[in-house]
Design goal:
Elements lengths: L4 E8 L3 H17 L5 E7 L5 H10 L4 E6 L6 H17 L4 E4 L9 H15 L7 E6 L5 H18 L3 E5 L7 H10 L5 E5 L6 H13 L3 E2 L7 H18 L3
Helix pairs in contact: 1-8, 6-7
Length: 247
C-alpha cells in the first residue's frame, strides 16, 4: 500500500517571489522524502491551483491525500478556506480519501531558522551588538493565534538573554514600528527584527518598512525554504497520514 500523497497548500498571492519561495520550500520537502508524492498548490491567484492538483492526483490513481496548510497560525478565515476547499475536493472525487492536517504552525525548532536568517541580516548591515529583539508575525483577530507568536517571542528572547516584544503586521497591536519605538524610548538603540513569516509578501514588506522607519538596525528575511521548515511540513503530514488509517 503506497503512502498518501502530500499536498502543501499555500494561501496564494500575486507576489512572484512569494510563490517562488513556497515552491522552493516544497522542493525541500521532496528532497527529504523522495519516496512520497509531494505537490505544491495555492488556494488563489497563483498556479497550480488546489483543484488542479487534486484532479491530477485522482487521475493518477491516488486514493489518499493529506493536505498540509502552509499557515503559521491557525487564523480562523484562512483555516476555514482550507477546510472548505478540502471538503469540496472530496465531494468532487467520492473515491478519494482526503483530509487536512493541522496548520504548519510555529515550532520551537524554528528558532534556529530565525537565528540563521537574523545572522545573515546582521552580517549584511555590519551590526555587531544588539540590546533588544522584535519578533514580527502576521497577526490575527484570534487572540490564541497571537499568543502563539508571543510565546515563541519569549522563548527567542530567553535564548539570547535579550528583551523581546512580539509585533504584528495586521489587526493586533503593536505594529513593528511601535515595538521598535517603545524599545528606543527605553534608551535601547540596537534593535533587530525577526520575520516570522513563511514567505515574502505585502505584509512582510510593510512590517519591514515600519521597523526601518522606527530605527531598527536589521530585519531578517522570512523563514522561507529551510530544511527545518520542511521537516515541520512532514511532521504535520505524518500525523495526518495516521489519521487516514481505518480503525
Amino acid at each position: 500500500m503506497s503512502a498518501p500523497a502530500l499536498v502543501a497548500l499555500a494561501p496564494g498571492g500575486r507576489d512572484p517571489e512569494a510563490v517562488a519561495t513556497i515552491t522552493a520550500l516544497v522542493a525541500e520537502v521532496r528532497a527529504l522524502r523522495p519516496d512520497l508524492r509531494v505537490e505544491v498548490a495555492f488556494l488563489e491567484r497563483a498556479r497550480p491551483s488546489f483543484d488542479t492538483v487534486v484532479d491530477r492526483l485522482a487521475r493518477a490513481g491516488h486514493d489518499e491525500v493529506v493536505v498540509v496548510p502552509l499557515l503559521l497560525t491557525n487564523e480562523g478565515s484562512a483555516s476555514g478556506d482550507v477546510l472548505s476547499a478540502v471538503r469540496a475536493a472530496g465531494e468532487r472525487h467520492p473515491g478519494l480519501r482526503i483530509s487536512a492536517s493541522e496548520v504548519l504552525g510555529v515550532s520551537p525548532s524554528f528558532l534556529g531558522v530565525l537565528d540563521e536568517r537574523l545572522r545573515d541580516a546582521l552580517r549584511v548591515h555590519r551590526v555587531r551588538e544588539l540590546d533588544a529583539l522584535v519578533l514580527a508575525g502576521e497577526g490575527s483577530g484570534d487572540a490564541l493565534a497571537n499568543q502563539t507568536v508571543a510565546r515563541l517571542a519569549r522563548m527567542w528572547g530567553a535564548r539570547h538573554h535579550l528583551p523581546v516584544t512580539a509585533a504584528y503586521a495586521t489587526t493586533a497591536p503593536p505594529a513593528t514600528g511601535e515595538a521598535v519605538r517603545a524599545f528606543r524610548g527605553e534608551g535601547r538603540r540596537h534593535i533587530a527584527v525577526g520575520s516570522l513569516f513563511l514567505a515574502p509578501g505585502a505584509l512582510t514588506s510593510r512590517a519591514t518598512e515600519l521597523a526601518l522607519e522606527a530605527g531598527a538596525v536589521a530585519i531578517s528575511e522570512p523563514l522561507g525554504a529551510h530544511p527545518e521548515v520542511a521537516r515541520g511540513v512532514l511532521a504535520r503530514y505524518a500525523v495526518g497520514a495516521v489519521e487516514l488509517v481505518p480503525v
